[in-house]
Structures are given as structure tokens and as C-alpha cells.
């Protein structure tokens, strides 16, 4: 791997054990779907428009389908979002006190169109009340588009905080400025190093599974090469010792053993091939004996947010269920 100060500067990436994406070079991605749904609800529900004839309010985020994500590559942020949104509104005619309800539909909010060009349609349930519908089509639509614009601003600022941090050159410039401004240069020398790169947002995963076998047998299924190859149905490389490397599922899963307590616990640095480069999670397997069975407790920290469901699927389908189905002597 290239080091600081060597080679073409376009390819300079500092090697870091903590998975930090230095110089913002590597492709990283955050899933913004869940965050976006919450933000859209926050910005859209409760919008009120009013004139001398009536008053309308968006009362419910009835439907929000789609996805959003933000990717970082070579120090640049790339946004993807595509939403189909349906809102409920209610209104009252001031003179008569009659109430009406309707819908606001946004069939395609995406990065392909400007907010001003985004289609917003307003409908009303049967009956009178067109005066309220007109209010929603004019002032209401304007407020909805304003809220959508606020969502995009938040997506590009609030959600992305920390995704692009200073490169080494930028950090050096900032440190030089600090030294010039400082009245006590010794404080600069004693200060902590400038943090470089981008930390990948992660989640923790906890799963438990019962196996009809003794803890000793279950432990061996994870540490004996032949047994690993049986349940994974693929070649495996295992160096079962502290600091030893392992490789499973044709190289799709790799890592290193951190701790091995025979028949009790396995702790590993663990990564999937399609994860951000050099990023590892910490996986702990605890083997808990109970009468006639063993409870396997999986605790995993550092899973990339966008890979959480894949991680659960990998362990449930490709580990737990395959172990139970394979002729490993677990029954």
C-alpha cells in the first residue's frame, strides 16, 4: 500500500489498522433510508397553510417508499435518493366550519430532478371544499417543496457530517496556522495528532441460536478445518491460534483470531469481501452449555450500517442453519 510522501499523490493512502478511510480515497457508503424517513416525517407532518377562507394541515405521512444513500469517493460525496411519498391533509372552511380531507402525492422525488420540477399533486375526497383544495395546490404545494428542499439540505450536511474529513495536506495547513496563532508553541507540540480520514458508521449485532449438541462439539465445528468445510461447502484456511488467520467461503470471509478459550469462547477480527476496504468487525462467539443443548451467543461490533441485514443473513442462513443441516454429528 502506498505511504505518505511516496509515489503519485493521487494514489497516496495512509495504512490504518482502525479502518479509517484516510485521504477520503476509498469508496464508502452510508444507507440514509431510515434516517430519511424520519427526517421527511419531521419536516412534512404538521405543515399548516391558511388564508381568509380556510386552514389546512398535513396530518400524516401516509406512505414513504424508496431509498437513499450517500457515498464518498476520492473526497467527493455522491447522493442517491428516490422516494414515492403520500401525505394526508385535512382542512376547515372558516365561514361554514365544514371539514374536508385529501391527499398530497409526490410520485418521484429523486436526484434526477430539481425540487422546483418535482411533481406534487393534490386531491380531495368527494364533495364541496374546492376552496381548500386550491389552498393546498398553491400555498400547500409551495410549503411541501420548501420542506423537501430542507430535507435535501439536511441530507447533504447533517447526515454526512464526518464522511469527508481533512486530507493530510489540509490538516498540515491547519496545524501551521494554529502554530502561528498560538502564544505558546509548547502547547502545539504536546497536542494530540490531527485525526485523518473517515470512520465508517457501524452497528452492533446480537444473535442467539440453540444447537442440540455439546459445547465441545459445537466449538470444534468452528475450529476444525474439515468441519468448517462441511458446513460451508467450500475450502477453508484456518490457523487456530491467537493471531492466526482464517479464510472461509472461497475467501469471501476473512479475519484473525483474537482470543480462543477452548469450548467456551472465540473472538475474531472478521470481515466480508464486499465491506469497505480494510474494515473489520469484532465477532465474539460464546458457547453456553444448557441441559442437552448449547446456546451459541453471537456478539458483533463494528458492522457497517449498510451491511447489517447481510450480516444477520450470513450468520443465520450460512452458518447456523447449514451447521444444523450438515452431517456434523450435532444431533
TrEMBL record:
TM segment ranges: none
Gene3D superfamilies per the UniProt record, alphabetical: 3.30.530.20, Activator of Hsp90 ATPase Aha1, N-terminal domain
Activator of Hsp90 ATPase AHSA1-like N-terminal domain location: 29-163
GO MF annotation list: ATPase activator activity; protein-folding chaperone binding
Matches recorded under SUPFAM superfamilies: Activator of Hsp90 ATPase, Aha1 (SSF103111), Bet v1-like (SSF55961)
Family assignment from sequence similarity: Belongs to the AHA1 family.
Protein name per its UniProtKB record: Activator of Hsp90 ATPase AHSA1-like N-terminal domain-containing protein
Naturally occurring in which organism (per UniProt): Equus caballus
Amino acid at each position: 500500500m502506498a505511504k505518505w510522501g511516496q509515489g503519485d499523490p493521487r494514489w497516496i493512502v495512509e495504512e490504518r489498522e482502525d479502518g479509517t478511510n484516510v485521504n477520503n480515497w476509498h469508496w464508502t457508503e452510508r444507507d440514509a433510508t431510515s434516517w430519511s424517513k424520519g427526517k421527511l416525517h419531521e419536516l412534512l407532518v404538521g405543515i399548516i397553510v391558511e388564508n381568509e377562507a380556510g386552514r389546512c394541515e398535513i396530518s400524516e405521512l401516509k406512505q414513504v417508499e424508496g431509498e437513499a444513500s450517500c457515498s464518498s469517493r476520492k473526497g467527493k460525496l455522491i447522493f442517491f435518493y428516490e422516494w414515492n411519498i403520500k401525505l394526508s391533509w385535512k382542512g376547515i372552511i372558516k365561514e361554514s366550519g365544514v371539514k374536508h380531507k385529501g391527499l398530497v402525492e409526490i410520485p418521484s422525488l429523486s436526484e434526477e430532478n430539481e425540487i422546483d420540477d418535482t411533481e406534487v399533486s393534490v386531491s380531495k375526497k368527494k364533495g364541496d371544499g374546492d376552496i381548500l383544495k386550491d389552498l393546498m395546490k398553491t400555498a400547500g404545494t409551495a410549503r411541501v417543496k420548501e420542506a423537501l428542499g430542507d430535507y435535501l439540505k439536511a441530507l447533504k450536511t447533517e447526515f454526512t457530517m464526518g464522511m469527508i474529513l481533512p486530507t493530510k495536506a489540509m490538516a498540515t495547513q491547519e496545524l501551521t496556522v494554529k502554530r502561528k496563532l498560538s502564544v505558546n508553541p509548547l502547547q502545539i507540540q504536546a497536542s494530540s495528532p490531527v485525526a485523518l480520514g473517515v470512520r465508517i458508521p457501524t452497528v452492533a449485532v446480537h444473535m442467539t441460536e440453540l444447537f442440540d449438541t455439546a459445547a465441545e462439539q459445537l466449538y470444534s465445528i468452528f475450529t476444525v478445518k474439515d468441519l468448517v468445510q462441511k458446513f460451508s461447502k467450500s475450502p477453508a484456511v484456518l490457523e487456530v491460534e491467537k493471531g492466526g488467520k482464517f479464510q472461509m467461503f472461497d475467501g469471501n470471509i476473512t479475519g484473525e483470531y483474537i482470543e480462543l478459550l477452548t469450548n467456551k469462547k472465540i473472538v475474531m477480527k472478521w470481515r466480508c469481501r464486499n465491506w469497505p476496504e480494510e474494515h473489520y468487525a469484532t465477532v465474539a462467539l460464546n458457547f453456553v452449555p444448557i441441559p442437552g443443548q448449547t446456546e451459541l451467543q453471537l456478539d458483533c461490533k463494528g458492522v457497517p450500517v449498510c451491511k447489517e441485514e447481510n450480516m444477520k443473513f450470513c450468520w443465520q442462513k450460512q452458518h447456523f442453519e447449514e451447521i444444523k443441516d450438515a452431517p456434523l454429528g450435532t444431533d
